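Q: what sequence does this backbone want?
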């Protein structure tokens, strides 16, 4: 099978706008003087603090965890003193308890941070345990605890692992630089996942506008015929896990289903790198690569940031704002989360901080639907966005549900292509929330 320029049906060609940072090497941010580490950074149960105000902690020390299965422990990103445990608003818009730690500048690493056994000697159960203890969650945006994803029920036979290196969101280049500069760790992480699930076949899917990363990964894999690099057409939302499964394997995840239903597990390349570091160095997930970019930033960069560092501090290290910012987004412009303030901390899922200028952020004038059907053509899930949106705007949520509103992945391709600039994805998102709330009540 030829594994070049694969794709899925639908999608849109969004201007990449990656030139601001695609050639910028990874650099490490300055050590923050204070970090604000939320106890709820992932899908699932929030953690509870294991430390008290006044305690001294070290880098990599576990400071919070939960007994729930769907959760991931939290670790300190600095050495210093716990100054307070308080509530803050996170970049996801949620309120969460937060451990505030003042760095003492010693950068002392906790004794638990040490290399594990070689991958050859680790069992499947031990690999998953290391991943869980390291607090690793999906770093592509969803933030699902990785040990849960690697623990499918026995009846779900997994035969294929896919690493998602598509990074189809405009502006973002964190994963691209990671694959280019740390291909050994990405491939090691994939091999660890394959061993954890006893799978013989692994793929790394990369869009064809990142051929330098493809060559870097291939130079590491060499003659390993269990792993293949797949080039994907640069098209949005190629990085959606169900779309990448379809492009690479031809399999279609059923409505309401999960990748495991078609024998696949998908992880982000940054997640794989975190797994490699957890095994090779014993390093828990307390820092990540963040692309700080946009025309509203003076010096766009790909920067490795400690979890808990305030957005404003990161922005300042990139030269500050270029004029008055029009919009600040965590993530990319298509699926990212608009921020009300820069007084929020970087969390495990913060792959990007995008700052648009005032002119770029101006809302476009909305006009009536002209029934052109373009939103149907580009929907990667083959939904009918115009009908779902029409029902949602009339608050007819039963009607929206009949058109399978819950299958929408909220990629925003319909809103992007709409010549009338209708609020399609926003209204569908509203309908989904109402449908799920009604189900919860009943």
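A:
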């Amino acid at each position: 099978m030829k594994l070049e320029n694969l794709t899925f049906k639908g999608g849109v060609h969004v201007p990449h706008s990656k030139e601001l940072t695609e050639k910028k090497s990874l650099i490490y941010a300055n050590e923050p003087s204070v970090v604000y580490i939320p106890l709820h950074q992932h899908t699932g149960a929030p953690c509870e603090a294991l430390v008290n105000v006044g305690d001294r902690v070290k880098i990599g020390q576990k400071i919070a965890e939960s007994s729930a299965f769907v959760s991931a422990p939290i670790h300190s990103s600095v050495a210093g003193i716990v100054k307070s445990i308080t509530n803050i608003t996170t970049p996801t818009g949620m309120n969460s308890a937060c451990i505030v730690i003042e760095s003492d500048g010693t950068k002392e690493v906790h004794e638990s941070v040490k290399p594990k056994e070689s991958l050859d000697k680790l069992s499947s159960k031990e690999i998953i345990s290391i991943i869980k203890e390291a607090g690793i969650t999906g770093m592509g945006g969803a933030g699902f605890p990785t040990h849960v994803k690697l623990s499918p029920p026995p009846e779900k036979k997994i035969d294929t692992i896919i690493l998602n290196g598509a990074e189809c969101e405009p502006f973002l280049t964190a994963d691209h630089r990671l694959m280019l500069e740390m291909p050994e760790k990405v491939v090691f992480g994939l091999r660890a996942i394959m061993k954890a699930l006893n799978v013989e076949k692994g793929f790394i899917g990369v869009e064809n506008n990142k051929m330098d990363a493809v060559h870097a990964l291939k130079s590491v894999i060499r003659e390993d015929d269990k792993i293949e690099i797949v080039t994907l057409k640069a098209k949005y939302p190629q990085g959606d896990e169900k779309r990448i499964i379809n492009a690479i394997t031809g399999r279609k995840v059923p409505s309401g289903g999960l990748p495991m239903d078609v024998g696949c597990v998908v992880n982000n390349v940054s997640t794989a790198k975190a797994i490699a570091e957890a095994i090779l160095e014993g390093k828990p997930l307390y820092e990540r690569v963040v692309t700080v970019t946009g025309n509203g930033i003076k010096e766009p960069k790909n920067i490795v940031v400690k979890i808990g560092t305030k957005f404003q501090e990161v922005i300042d290290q990139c030269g500050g704002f270029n004029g008055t910012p029009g919009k600040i987004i965590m993530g990319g412009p298509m699926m990212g989360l608009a921020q009300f303030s820069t007084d929020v901390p970087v969390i495990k899922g913060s792959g990007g901080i995008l700052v648009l200028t005032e002119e770029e952020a101006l809302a476009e004038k909305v006009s009536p639907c002209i029934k052109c059907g373009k939103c149907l053509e580009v929907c990667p899930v083959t939904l009918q966005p115009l009908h779902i949106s029409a029902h949602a705007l009339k608050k007819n949520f039963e009607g929206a549900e009949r058109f399978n509103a819950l299958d929408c992945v909220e990629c925003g391709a319909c809103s992007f292509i709409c010549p009338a600039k209708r609020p399609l994805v926003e209204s569908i998102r509203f309908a989904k929330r109402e449908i799920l709330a009604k189900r919860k009540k009943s």
